[in-house]
Backbone:
C-alpha cells in the first residue's frame, strides 16, 4: 500500500510541477490598489509595464485614480527592460496581463500581426479621436483597427548643456546645425570639450536619436515615414547626407569627452553625469528623461542643466517623440475601461502633476505640469502638432532598431568609430534592415 | 517519446498498485531473474517521466525547432545551421567561443594548481584559500557589474586604467598642455607642423614672436594663472616672445594679441630652429614670456616641440575590439580559480606523501618533484577540473552579457543563442540551431566525465 501511495504521490507532485510551470513566469506584485465602489467593483485588471522605482510609483498613483473612479482592482507587474521577453512567453501560454504598456509601436505591430491584441472598443476609439492627433492614432493601428493608446511621451529633440561652460566661452545655444558645429569649435578653442557622447554598445540608441533628429530635419516628415517603413533604402542619398552631417561632430574625436576610446564605451547615464557631475563636457544628448539622471548629480535642472531645441539641420524643425503605448491583451470590461481612462485627459492630468511625465494628449494643458522644463517641452510638442514624428528606431523591427550590438545601433556605433565610411555604413545598415524586415 | 510516456504513466501506476496488492505472484518472481523487468521499470517511471518532460522533450523539441524558420511554420532544412557560420556577428561569436574554450579552462587549471601547491605549506593557507575562493560566493551578474567598473575607460573611474596611468606616469610625466594647438585657418602667426607648433614666418634676431595657443583645458592651467604680458624688448642676438592662451573668458577679445583676461602659459619649452638644427632653447615664465639668447645670425623658426603637447596617457582600451574577450576571461579567472584551487588542493591532500619523499631522498629538486611526481599523481583531478571548466566555459553567458554590454566583438555562442532567439532577433529557429550546436560541443566532455565516473566506481 505504501508503495502505491508513494507512486501516486510522485505522480501528483509531477502534476503539480507541470501546472506550476504552466502558470509560472508572471511576476505580479502584491501591492494592488484597494478596490473602491464603482461600476467595476470586483473586476480585476492586471497591468504590465517596464517602469520601476519613481516611474512605477507615479503610474501606480494613476492606477489608483482609476480604481477610485471605477472600483476595479488593479495589479501592476513589472516586465523588466525587455518587454518582449516578458510578454512573449505569457502570450504563448495564453495568460497575458489584461493591459500591457509597450515601449515601442513596433512591438504593437508585431503582436497585432500575430493576433495577440484586442482591438479598442468604439467608445475608446472615440476618446482617442478626441484627444490625439491622427498620426498617433495611426501609429497604434494595424490593418485598419486601432489597438493602442499612447500614454506617455518622451521628447527627444533637445540637447542638454551646462550654461557655465557656455558662459565661460561666450557661446549662445545654437539654433541651426551650422551654429552647433561653430559653437563646438569655439567651446573647444576655449578649452571645453563640447560633447559627451554615449556610444557604448548597450546605449547606442542615443546615436539613433541623433541620426533621426538630423534626418527628420533634412529629409522632412514624408521621407522619414518612408524610411521608417523601409520604403526607401538606407543606401538612399538622403541617409548619406545625414551621416555626413553627423560626421561634422562625431568625426572629431577631440570634440568628444575622453576621445573615441571612451565615447564608444560610455553608457547614457555616464554621458549625462560626465557633463553635469564631472563637468568634463559642455553638451550631451538626452530626452526629457535625462532630467532623472541629472538629478543624481549636484547640478540642478533649470539652472546648472538647461536644454535647447535640437538644432535644425535642414528645413524642418525636428520634433521627435518616443513613448509608451498601452494595449489590451484580454477581452473584458476592465481592460477596455482602463484603456479609455488612459486615453482621457483626466489620467494625463494626474500624471503630469506628479512630474517626470509628458503627455502626447493634446487636451492636457501645459499648466497641468508641475515642473517648468516639462511645461516648456509640452508646449514644444503641441506647437509641432502634426509634424511631430515618433522615434524611427522604435518603429522598425526590434532586431534592427532596438537591440544592443545589432542593426541600427551597431551600424551607427561603428560609424562613430569610422566616420569617413559613409558608404560602407549605409550598405551595412541596408543589409541589416533587409534581414530584419523580411 | 514523452507523449508515449505520458499516456503510459497512469495505467502503469494502476497496474503497479494491483501487482503489489496481489503479493508475490509467480510472474513477478520470474521477472526478477530475467534482467530489467516491468517492475523495475515501474520504479523508474516517475524519474523517467520527469526526465522526459524536463530534459528529453526540450532537447528533442529544440532539435526539431532548429529545422524551422523564425515563425516556426516553414521547414528550412539545415539553413539555420549554415547560418551560424555566416555573417560577421555569428563568426565572431564562434571565434570567441573557440578562444574561450582553449584559453579559459587551461588558465583556470594552471592558476588553481599554482594556488593549491603554493598554499599547501604556508601557515595561513586556510585564510588565503578563503580569500581566493570568495569570488565564488558572488553571483556572476554582480561580478560582471564589478568588472564593468574595473574596466571603465576613464582613468578617474576605472581602477584598471587608473593603475595603468599611475604606473605609466611614474616613469614618464605627462605634464604640459595636451590637446593645445594653434587657431585654424590661413594667415595665422603660428601653425601646426606634425605634432609641433611653429611660427608661420621666420623671425630675425632682435625681433619678437607671438605664439598664441588655443584649446587649453582648464585643468592644465596653473591654479593661479598670470595674465599674459607683451614680450620684453629683444636685444641684438636675442629673440623674445610670449606663449599664451589666446582665448578671452566669455568670448570676444582680439585674436593673436595678448589681451586683458588672457593668461600666459608657463613652463613651455621654446626652441629656435635654423636649417633643421636647434640653435637656442628657452622656457616660458609665468606670464608666458620667453627670451631666446645667442640665436646667432640669420632668421630662425621658433618652435614649440612636441613634449609640450604630449597627450596624457589614458590607459588601455580594455573593452575595445581586441582586448574585450581577454578582459572578460580575466574576470572569469577571478571568479573560478578559487574553485579550481579547492578541488586541486583536495586532490593534493590525497596524494601519498611517500612518493614525494622518495623522490626527494633520491635527490630530485623541488621542480622535478613537482613536474615528475606531483603532476602525474594529480592528473586525474586536473582532468576533472579541466573538463568541468570546459563545459562551464561553453555556456558562459552572464559575464559576457554584463561586461560586454552587447558589444558584438565580445559575443559568444551562448549569448548569440539568446540574442537570436529572444534578445531582439526573435528567430527561435536560429537560436535553437545554436543551442543544438552547443549541446553537441558539450557532449564529448560529458561522455568523458561519465566514463571517468564509471571507472572510479569499478
Residues:
Amino acid at each position: 500500500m505504501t508503495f502505491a501511495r508513494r507512486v501516486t504521490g510522485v505522480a501528483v507532485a509531477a502534476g503539480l510541477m507541470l501546472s506550476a510551470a504552466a502558470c509560472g513566469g508572471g511576476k505580479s506584485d502584491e501591492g494592488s490598489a484597494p478596490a473602491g465602489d464603482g461600476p467595476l467593483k470586483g473586476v480585476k485588471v492586471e497591468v504590465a509595464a517596464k517602469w520601476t522605482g519613481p516611474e512605477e510609483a507615479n503610474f501606480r498613483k494613476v492606477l489608483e485614480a482609476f480604481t477610485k473612479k471605477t472600483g476595479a482592482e488593479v495589479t501592476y507587474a513589472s516586465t523588466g527592460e525587455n518587454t518582449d521577453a516578458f510578454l512573449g512567453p505569457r502570450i504563448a501560454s495564453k495568460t497575458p496581463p489584461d493591459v500591457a504598456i509597450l515601449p515601442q509601436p513596433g512591438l504593437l505591430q508585431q503582436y497585432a500581426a500575430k493576433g495577440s491584441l484586442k482591438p479598442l472598443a468604439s467608445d475608446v476609439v472615440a476618446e482617442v479621436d478626441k484627444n490625439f492627433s491622427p498620426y498617433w492614432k495611426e501609429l497604434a493601428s494595424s490593418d485598419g483597427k486601432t489597438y493602442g493608446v499612447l500614454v506617455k511621451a518622451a521628447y527627444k529633440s533637445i540637447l542638454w548643456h551646462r550654461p557655465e561652460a557656455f558662459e565661460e566661452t561666450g557661446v549662445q545655444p545654437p539654433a541651426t546645425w551650422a551654429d552647433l558645429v561653430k559653437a563646438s569649435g569655439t567651446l573647444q578653442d576655449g578649452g571645453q570639450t563640447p560633447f559627451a557622447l554615449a556610444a557604448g554598445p548597450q546605449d547606442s540608441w542615443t546615436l539613433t536619436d541623433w541620426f533621426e533628429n538630423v534626418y527628420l530635419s533634412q529629409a522632412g516628415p514624408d521621407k522619414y515615414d518612408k524610411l521608417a517603413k523601409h520604403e526607401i533604402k538606407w543606401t538612399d542619398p538622403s541617409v548619406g547626407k545625414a551621416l555626413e552631417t553627423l560626421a561634422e561632430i562625431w568625426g572629431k574625436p577631440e570634440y568628444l569627452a575622453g576621445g573615441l576610446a571612451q565615447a564608444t564605451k560610455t553608457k547614457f547615464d555616464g554621458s549625462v553625469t560626465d557633463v553635469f557631475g564631472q563637468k568634463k563636457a559642455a553638451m550631451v544628448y538626452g530626452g526629457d528623461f535625462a532630467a532623472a539622471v541629472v538629478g543624481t548629480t549636484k547640478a540642478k535642472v533649470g539652472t546648472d542643466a538647461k536644454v535647447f531645441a535640437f538644432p535644425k539641420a535642414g528645413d524642418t524643425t525636428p520634433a521627435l517623440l518616443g513613448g509608451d503605448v498601452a494595449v489590451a491583451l484580454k477581452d473584458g470590461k476592465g481592460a477596455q475601461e482602463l484603456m479609455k481612462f488612459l486615453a482621457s485627459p483626466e489620467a494625463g492630468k494626474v500624471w503630469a502633476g506628479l512630474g517626470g511625465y509628458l503627455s502626447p494628449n493634446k487636451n492636457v494643458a501645459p499648466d497641468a505640469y508641475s515642473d517648468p522644463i516639462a511645461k516648456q517641452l509640452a508646449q514644444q510638442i503641441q506647437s509641432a502638432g502634426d509634424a511631430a514624428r515618433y522615434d524611427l528606431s522604435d518603429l522598425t523591427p526590434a532586431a534592427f532598431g532596438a537591440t544592443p550590438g545589432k542593426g541600427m545601433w551597431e551600424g551607427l556605433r561603428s560609424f562613430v568609430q569610422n566616420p569617413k565610411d559613409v558608404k560602407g555604413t549605409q550598405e551595412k545598415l541596408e543589409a541589416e534592415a533587409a534581414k530584419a524586415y523580411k | 517519446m514523452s507523449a508515449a510516456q505520458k499516456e503510459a504513466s497512469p495505467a502503469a501506476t494502476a497496474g503497479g498498485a494491483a501487482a503489489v496488492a496481489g503479493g508475490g505472484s509467480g510472474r513477478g518472481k520470474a521477472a526478477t531473474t530475467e534482467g530489467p523487468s516491468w517492475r523495475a521499470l515501474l520504479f523508474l517511471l516517475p524519474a523517467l517521466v520527469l526526465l522526459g518532460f524536463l530534459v528529453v522533450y526540450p532537447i528533442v523539441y529544440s532539435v526539431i525547432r532548429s529545422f524551422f524558420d523564425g515563425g516556426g511554420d516553414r521547414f528550412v532544412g539545415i539553413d539555420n545551421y549554415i547560418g551560424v557560420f555566416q555573417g560577421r556577428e555569428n563568426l565572431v561569436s564562434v571565434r570567441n567561443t573557440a578562444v574561450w574554450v582553449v584559453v579559459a579552462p587551461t588558465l583556470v587549471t594552471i592558476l588553481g594548481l599554482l594556488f593549491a601547491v603554493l598554499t599547501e605549506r604556508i601557515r595561513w593557507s586556510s585564510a588565503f584559500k578563503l580569500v581566493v575562493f570568495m569570488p565564488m560566493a558572488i553571483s556572476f551578474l554582480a561580478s560582471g557589474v564589478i568588472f564593468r567598473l574595473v574596466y571603465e575607460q576613464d582613468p578617474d573611474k576605472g581602477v584598471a586604467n587608473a593603475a595603468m596611468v599611475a604606473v605609466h606616469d611614474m616613469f614618464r610625466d605627462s605634464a604640459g598642455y595636451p590637446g593645445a594647438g594653434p587657431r585654424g585657418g590661413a594667415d595665422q602667426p603660428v601653425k601646426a607642423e606634425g605634432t609641433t607648433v611653429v611660427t608661420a614666418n621666420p623671425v630675425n634676431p632682435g625681433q619678437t614672436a607671438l605664439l598664441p595657443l588655443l584649446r587649453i583645458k582648464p585643468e592644465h592651467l596653473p591654479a593661479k594663472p598670470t595674465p599674459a604680458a607683451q614680450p620684453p624688448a629683444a636685444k641684438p642676438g636675442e629673440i623674445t616672445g610670449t606663449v599664451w592662451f589666446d582665448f578671452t573668458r566669455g568670448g570676444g577679445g582680439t585674436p593673436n594679441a595678448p589681451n586683458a583676461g588672457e593668461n600666459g602659459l608657463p613652463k613651455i619649452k621654446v626652441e629656435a630652429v635654423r636649417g633643421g638644427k636647434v640653435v637656442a632653447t628657452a622656457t616660458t615664465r609665468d606670464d608666458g614670456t620667453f627670451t631666446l639668447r645667442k640665436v646667432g645670425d640669420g632668421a630662425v623658426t621658433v618652435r614649440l616641440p612636441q613634449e609640450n603637447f604630449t597627450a596624457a596617457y589614458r590607459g588601455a582600451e580594455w573593452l575595445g575590439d581586441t582586448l574585450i574577450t581577454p578582459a572578460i576571461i580575466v574576470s572569469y579567472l577571478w571568479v573560478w580559480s578559487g574553485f579550481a584551487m579547492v578541488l586541486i588542493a583536495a586532490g593534493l591532500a590525497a596524494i601519498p606523501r611517500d612518493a614525494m619523499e622518495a623522490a626527494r631522498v633520491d635527490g630530485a629538486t623541488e621542480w622535478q618533484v613537482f613536474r615528475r611526481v606531483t603532476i602525474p599523481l594529480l592528473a586525474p583531478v586536473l582532468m576533472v577540473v579541466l573538463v568541468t571548466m570546459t563545459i562551464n566555459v561553453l555556456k558562459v553567458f552572464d559575464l559576457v552579457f554584463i561586461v560586454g554590454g552587447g558589444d558584438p566583438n565580445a559575443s559568444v555562442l551562448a549569448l548569440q543563442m539568446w540574442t537570436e532567439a529572444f534578445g531582439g532577433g526573435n528567430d527561435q529557429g536560429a537560436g535553437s540551431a545554436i543551442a543544438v550546436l552547443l549541446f553537441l560541443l558539450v557532449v564529448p566532455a560529458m561522455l568523458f566525465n561519465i566514463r571517468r565516473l564509471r571507472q572510479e566506481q569499478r
Summary: The CA atoms of residues 116 and 342 of chain B lie 7 Å apart. Chain B has three domains: 30-65, 79-162+318-457, 190-308. The first helix of chain B runs from residue 2 to 22. Confidence is low (pLDDT under 50) at residues 1-32 of chain B.
